[in-house]
Amino acid sequence: MNGLKNRPYSNCANAPREPRRFPICAFKHEMNRRPLDGKGGREMSRGLAGYTIVEVLIVVVILAILAMVVAPHISSATKQTRDSAASTDVQTLQKLIELYKLQHDGRGPHLDDKGKQQTSQFVSRMTKRTDRDGKIDKDGECGPYLDEWPANPFVKPSKARTIEFGTDPTPPMDGKAGWYYNTDTCQIFLNSPMEPA
Fold first, then answer.
1. What would the pLDDT profile of 153-165 be if each residue is shown by its tens digit?
2. Among 40, 47, 154, 166, which residue carries the largest CB count within 10 Å?
């Protein structure tokens, strides 16, 4: 104990404290801790180093390969979806035409209230209300069967909702109209192959 009394600042409370040092920013503090490199600068922290050109090129090549592998599958899936949607539209339209005939004493939507062919009102009879005779009437008891006539995705947009009428059992498939309606059998067809225009 006698030895401790003779030592200066034996009482810890009276001992001078070293001032605390707070770095201006973490980066500056980190750089100050790094030894100088051979060129007079300081070594860059390994965590702050950038990518080399080779590493960037490797990543670009990998992304390009992935794009080449994935793109055909996406394209194929898109075509299958379009084909499926078009087939569903044909089936739905045919069922709705049959329902129209059932509610209008066997007359198709291409016939007017007197039983005469009137193809100009075909879409209106499917998208608006009609009476039992097929006359368009906002207070009619039948319809509407569709909100709007669907588009054929395989023809030009300007032709996609148009309808060609005829008596041939098969459509001409010329794409001049989006749809073909057989007035003898009341059947509806896509008027194009299932290939994009």
1. 999 999 999 999 9
2. 154
User: What secondary structure, in 3-state letters, does 25-47 show?
Assistant: CHHHHHHHHCCECCCCCECCCHH
Q: CA-to-CA distance for 183 and 166, rounded, in angstroms?
A: 6
156 and 181 part of one domain: yes
149: three-class secondary structure by DSSP: coil
Weakest-pLDDT range from 35-44, 102-111, 185-194: 35-44
Percentage of residues in the chain having pLDDT higher than 70:
71
- Measured distance CA(189)–CA(178) in Å, rounded: 9
Alpha helices in 104-120 (DSSP H): none
Average pLDDT over residues 75-89: 82
Q: How many CB atoms lie within 10 A of CB 110?
A: 21
Question: What gap in Å lies between CA 20 and CA 159, rounded to an integer?
Answer: 81
At residue 26, what is the residue type? A
What pTM value is reported for the model? 0.62
Domain count, the chain: 2
Residue 51 is predicted with a pLDDT of 83
Amino acid identity, position 20: R
Asked whether the bond before 144 is cis by omega within 30 degrees of 0, the reply is yes
Residue 79, token pair as written in the block: 């075509």
- Burial grade of 125 (CB within 10 A; 0-12, 13-18, 19 or more): buried
